[in-house]
Structure formats: C-alpha cells, structure tokens
Amino acid sequence: MLTSLVDGTTRNRLVRARAAAMQYGASAGIAILNVDAELPPPARIALYMQQCELLYLDQQFDSASSTYDTNIEPLLEHLPPECSALLTDNRSIISFALFNADGSNQFYHQVDIRRLLGVELRNSSAALEAERSAKAGKHYEALPLVWRQLLETYQKQNWRALQVAHSHMARECIALNWPDEAVWHAVQALDKDLVVEAANALMVLKESDRIAAAIDRVLMFSKLAKHTYLVAHFLSTIADCIPEDRLEYVIPWLVEQLQFVPTAWIHSSIYEPVWKLAGQLAPRINAQLLLGFAQLAVEHPFFIQGNPARKHLIESCNCIFQKISQDLLTQFTPSVISLVTTYKSDFDFVDSVNLVYLFAERCESCSTEIKSALFPPGVQVSNSTLLILASLLECPLQDEETINAGAARIASSVRKQVEVLDEAAEPSKLGGFGQITKSKGSEKIVVHMAGNQHLIDAIAAHVSSLTDDSVNQIVDALLDMIADDRNIVSNRVSLAQSLEKFIPRLTSGLAQRSSQILGQIARGIFKESDVAQTYQEAKSPLNPFKISSGDPCDLVSIAGLTLAHGSKFHSEFRTELHSGVLLELLEAENEKIRKYGVSAALEADCLTESETTSLITNCFDSSPAVRKRALYALGTLQTLGLDRQGLLLGVRAIKNASSSTDANERAEAARAARALLKHTMVDGEIVTRLKNILNDLSSDASWWVRNCALESCSEETQSCENKPVHRKQAKKGRSRKCQTSS
C-alpha cells in the first residue's frame, strides 16, 4: 500500500490537501502538494497521485492525464509491483473519462496484471461477509468490516476501490437509518443514483435537523466539479424539504453555480441539476433574488445557443418567470421571443413556445409584442406548434376559407396512416417517426408512426374556424383510424387525444359513433396491430430487437378519458361513460388504468353513487400514484354529495395519507382536508379530526406540505403565494353528483 511507504509529514499533507481542495477548490489543495525533488520516490508518487486525483475530481481530465504521464509513470519502477498495479488502474479511469480509444485496453491489461500478481482492489471475502451480516440484520458485525475496508482503500490510493468502498458504506448507513451520513459517502462514491437514494431516505425521516446536518456537510466540501454535480442533485432531490434557515446557505452556493458556463461537453454535467434546483426554489425565494435568477438565465451563453442542454435552462425559466410580477416581465420579452426566432433550436422548440405562451398569458403588453413578432400580417405560418400558439393567442393567421380548404386533404392523409399496397408500390410520405411494414402475399401493409399527426394538431387548434362539413370529414377519418386494429397503439392514442378537441363540434350522429368506438376500446375490446410487435413481445428480455408500438393500457385509459370529457357536451358520451365504463376504469387491475380512471372521474359531467364510492376507495389504493390522484380528486371535487359514511371514509383516507413517506401525498391530504371542511354535511366530530390532521401537517418537514396545511387551517383560506407552478388549480362551480344512478 502506497501510504505505508511514505513518512508521516507527507501523509499529513495528503489529508490537508484533499480537505482544502474539497472546501476551497482544486488549486487550493494542489498548492499544499508542492513536490520536493529530494523526497523519496514513494513520497513523490503519493503527492503527485493526490494532485492527479484532485484534477480528476475537478473534471480537469487533460491535466490529470498529463500529471500522471509526466510525473508518476517514470517513478512507478521504484515501487513494489503490487503497489504499482493498484496505482496504474487510476490511469485507466482517466482514459475512460477522456473517452480515449485505448482506455478499455488499458483497463483489461491491468486486470490481467493484477491477477498474475494476486492483487485485489478490495478484500472480496470481507465484503461478502459484511454483505451477509447486513442482510441478516447483524449490522454490529457488518459496519466494522465495511469501515475497515474504507480505511484500507484510502491507504491503497486506488480510486476505483475507494468509490466502491464509499458506496458500500453509504448503503450500510441507509440500512442503519443514517441517511444524512449516507449522503456524504454517496457523494464520495461519485454515484448519482446512490445520492438520490440516500436523499429520498433522508426525506422519509421527515427530520429537519438531520436534513440540515446533511446539507451543511456537503455544502462545505463541494468545490470540486464532480462533487458539485452530485451535491446539486442531492439538493434538487430534497428541494422541497430544505429547512428555511438553510436557504441562506443554499442560495449563495446556487447563485455561484448558476454563473458557471461549461466550456466543453464533459463540463456540462453541473449545468443541468443547478438550473433544475433554481426552478424548484423559485416559489420559495423573494422577488429580488427571483429577478436575479431571471437575469442570470437570459444572460447565460446557453440561452442564445442551439445547445441540447438549453432545454434544462428553459424548463427552469418556466418556473422562474411564473413567479415574477407582471410589470417586470416586459424587460425579458425580447429575449424569450428570440428563443423561437433568432436562436430557434429543434431540441427545445416546444419548451420555448410554452415559455412564450406563459409570457403572453400573464402580461397583456407581452402578448401584443409576441403577436407582432411571431405573427406579422401577411406572413404565412406553416409550423404546427406555432399554429397552435396562434390559436391560443386568438391570433387569426388565415381566413376560414383557406383553413377549410385543407380539411379534406388532411382527412384523406389521416386514413393513410395504414396503407395496403402492392409489393412494388412506394408508401406515402406522411412525416412522423418512420414506417412499419409487413408483407402479406403479393401485398404489404404499411403503418406510418405518427403519420400526419402534426397536421391534425394544427387544424384542431383552429376547430372554431372549421365548417360542419370539415369537422365531419376530419372526425370520420380519426374514428376510422382509431377503430382500425391494424393501426399501432401509439397512433390510436394520439388520434383519440386529438378527437377530444373536436368533441364540442360533433353532430349527434358522430357523437353516437364516437362514444361507441371509445366505449368499446375503454372496455379493452380491441386487438393490437399484427403489423408490429405486440407490447409484451417488445418487453420480452429474450427479444433482441425491441420496437414498442405502444402500451394497450394507454389506449384504454385515453379512450376512457376522452369519453369522460365528451360527457360534458353530449348525452351519447354520458350514457356510454356511466354504463359501467368509468366504474371499470376505477376498479381495473392495472394501476395505470386506475389512475387514468380517477382522471376520468375528474373530467366527467357527474358521478353515480357507485362511481363516487369507488373513487373514495381508490384513496386506499396500493399504488402511491393512484392514491395521490384520488386524494387530489377528493380535494378538487368539492360537491361530491357524500353522505356521512362517505365523509368518514374520506377522513380515514386523509389520515392515512398524512403519515405517508411521500411529501406529495401528504400535501394532497392537506388539500383534501380543506375541501372536506367546507362540505355541507360535516359535523363537529369530523371537523375536529380534520383540524387535528392539518395541525400535524403544519409542522411537516416539507415546505409544500406545511404551506398547504397552514393555508388549510384557517377558515378563511389564506393566499398561497408560492405554490409550485405545476400544481393544477381546483375546478369550481360544477356539480359532481348524477341525479339518477346509471
């Protein structure tokens, strides 16, 4: 082992240099590691190796490679072969980081050398014994073994072994319910997934003091680039649970990282999590800081580059600008418009358009400027995404005659999603994501994946300008392709979603046909296309060519959701939905379908008694996703018409959710409690139980849960200024009770 070959003074310098680099930056640590030429070779190697490691951890891979080749490689002959073999493995790690072509050859060559020498990176027998003890619950035996291995790897100076040892220690800490300690070791293990796992375990504890301790420790030692990246992921994972008194430390650290500009693609790893964290913290910070975040965003070089990573910056901007006051938005409007004009990029075009729409929706003067810039008079717009934006902004681009003239052509092209052709014939060019072809005798069936979907979306955005005849032609084509079992599932899902936009314009005959087709699919009465692989075939681990054409559960779910949406407009949809379709969705075996079933209940015109009971029962579902959605429904549908028994069942569901380890579920519990407090049939006992739940949640470790609970505790609902922008607002003023049971 290398450290056993050097003197105590050198070992002391190694420790001080590592701590200084982690706390103040790589240059601070390297300054302590000045190498005297008169030192013995082992001491010089140890000092140079520490320099090399600090450069590697700071993502200065070229410098690390140069340091190793120039200063370490010539001295290795002075070490025992066993020690040299351990250090040479570090060089292969640098090669992998640089994506050098000979990296794999170096790695396997060193593996062979270590086997010949009988050298192991770690004590495998001790690791196996520790693993067995941990699984048996004997952590008093496992922990000393794991800790001893960690100390030994520091003495070996082998980076790979060090990361594995820290990883093992992190998992042991999680098992011992020490997630705050586990976070530190996960960062040192350079394992992002393990950092997230430890962070989630920390949030489950719901103990603010331990969360604060973990934050303090990792922030203090986060100056090296690889550590910065992992700390950002940790803070992003626990953003909602960062204690208020720790924001004063997190925010300055974050502002410093937001100013970082990657100079090469290998340095861009830090960029994504820090901007994600900025978006997550936007609802919790004051207006001045928020304005600073916005200024940093629009001045960032990536904002005007067609860089794939810009998508993360734009996603954060959606959160940041949502919370900036309307009078301050105008100064950023030109920059935001440039995202879809001067600096347009296909990587993030839809996200950029969404940001533009956010500005237009929040500020009237911004909307005027956006319309003038994107839709000047006399300019034809063909991009389907911009056509949708024009519809949302009520900005007419073409006269009704021009729009309707293309309806027949679009209807005809939609039917070409499935084509039956001669073997020699060429399929139509519809765009989308390609084609799937299957030969049948002298013919072939061609299915176009998402063929012409962009045209359907574009004309659907202007449905109010279509004539009845145009609507009939397009809807007929949509229904033909939705009902066609030769069409792939993903196409049928998209078409069913498009059909929803035409529902208000359907004639009685089309409404009848639409409801029948959707009802049949929602009951699962359809076949997967035999042109492509089935969903199960595409999922099979024995299938080397997995080409998924869509999950049938998605089609069932979307059909039910579209049917529910139509029930607000047409009696035909209403009759079909309440004839057992919605109940089947709510009680399906598949959890995805049950979740969509709850969404359908939210969309439906009304609920029968059996549907209401099933909806409340889903608050106790085994799936967290279904429970959260059902609780959201309980908090949103304020006029469910529950009797006392239904109210008691709802209170019990809220009580169960209030002790969940999932902060979002606890937040939904608080919202549901608020809704039930306003119910006309609540009595003193129910009120007391609900207020006790809200009082408990008002001291929750999660900021969002506390916010919901404190808002809910007062009889006059307080304003919640910092609600996350992705939260849907409650729908009000609509009766949810069917007059008669279906």
Structural notes for this entry:
By secondary structure, the protein is an all-alpha fold. 63% of the residues lie in helices and 2% in strands. The protein contains 38 helices and 3 strands. A 3-stranded antiparallel beta sheet has the order 1-3-2, with no helix packed on it. A hairpin with a 2-residue loop joins strand 2 and strand 3 (443-448). Helix 28 (508-522) runs parallel beside helix 31 (571-586). The termini are far apart.
Secondary structure topology:
Layout: H1 8-24, H2 26-31, H3 41-57, H4 61-72, H5 81-97, H6 103-117, H7 124-135, H8 139-156, H9 159-175, H10 179-188, H11 192-205, H12 208-220, H13 225-237, H14 247-258, H15 271-281, H16 287-299, H17 310-323, H18 326-329, H19 333-338, H20 349-362, H21 364-374, H22 384-392, H23 400-405, H24 407-414, E1 418-422, E2 435-440, E3 443-448, H25 453-460, H26 468-483, H27 489-502, H28 508-522, H29 535-539, H30 552-566, H31 571-586, H32 591-603, H33 609-617, H34 624-636, H35 644-658, H36 663-677, H37 684-697, H38 703-713
Antiparallel strand pairs: 1-3, 2-3
Helix pairs in contact: 1-3, 3-4, 4-5, 5-6, 7-8, 8-9, 9-10, 10-11, 10-12, 11-13, 13-15, 15-17, 16-17, 17-20, 20-21, 20-22, 22-25, 24-26, 25-27, 26-27, 26-28, 27-30, 28-30, 28-31, 30-31, 30-32, 31-32, 32-34, 34-36, 35-36, 35-37, 36-37, 36-38, 37-38
Tally of helical runs:
38
* Span between termini: 78 Å
Largest sheet geometry: 3 strands, antiparallel
Q: Beta fraction of the residues?
A: under 5%
Chain-averaged pLDDT? 88
Low-confidence stretches: 714-737
Over the alpha carbons, how many angstroms does the gyration radius reach?
31 Å
Number of strands: 3
User: Shape from CA axes?
Assistant: globular
**What is the share of helical residues?**
55-70%
Strand order across the largest sheet: 1-3-2
Task: Please state the structural category.
Answer: mainly alpha
